[in-house]
Amino acid sequence: MSESFAEIAWGLAAIAAEFHSRGWVLGTSGNLSAVVERDPLRLAITPSGVDKGALQADQILSIDEDARMLSSSPGKPSDESPLHVRIAKEREAGAVFHTHSVWSTMFSDLHFAEGGLAIEGYEMLKGLEGVKTHEHREWIPILENSQDMWKLADSVAEILKQHPHAHGFLLRRHGLYAWGKDSRQAKWHVEILEFLFETLGRTRSMDRIQ
Length: 210
Ligand SMILES: [Zn+2]
Fold this sequence. Notes:
This protein is α+β, with helices and mostly antiparallel strands. It has five helices and eight strands. It has helices spanning 5-21, 81-90, 102-110, 149-162, 183-209; strands at 31-37, 42-45, 61-64, 95-99, 116-120, 137-143, 168-171, 175-180. Strands 3-2-1-4-8-7-6-5 form an eight-stranded mixed beta sheet, with helices on both faces. Helix 4 links the parallel strand 6 (137-143) and strand 7 (168-171). Helix 2 runs parallel beside helix 4 (149-162). The mean pLDDT is 95. Bound molecules: zinc ion (ZN). The site of zinc ion (ZN) has 5 residues, from loops.
């Protein structure tokens, strides 16, 4: 049985609180969405300008495929809604989660010139959908940041086509986008990618000290 909007909203608020406690969506940063209906596309999404540590399920909004608000409740959908819609469409994702963590922000800048970041050889990679061995090489594309979210959504669609096996991408000096077939899998993907960024970052820092 498919989940109701209320159940999806409750789940998003719980995940937002968890991500906030990990320091991945501090202040009003980051946003989370989940598909409520596929055709026509309808997404549940976190509102703009709300503290993710205090977000309540009844603050979650509903938007259509043009990122237009369908809810009558107060609040404004996240400015980054066009990106969520585009990823949900391009990847047929059931949920799209976006974090502003320290490590993803640092790597998005450090590796921008190469167009992405490769991570390979870690057991944790096996938590990503379709990955069967630690020998997998995960390529995480990095895009230039923009405040024009519709233009950025077009760039995202292009990158997703170029890298059909990517589980996430970074926006420069901004943060991570990851997705999954449902909220549970999208959450795992964020947790795994954030773990790998932190592991790589801490390993590099220690290498410099030694
Ligand atoms: Zn953001």
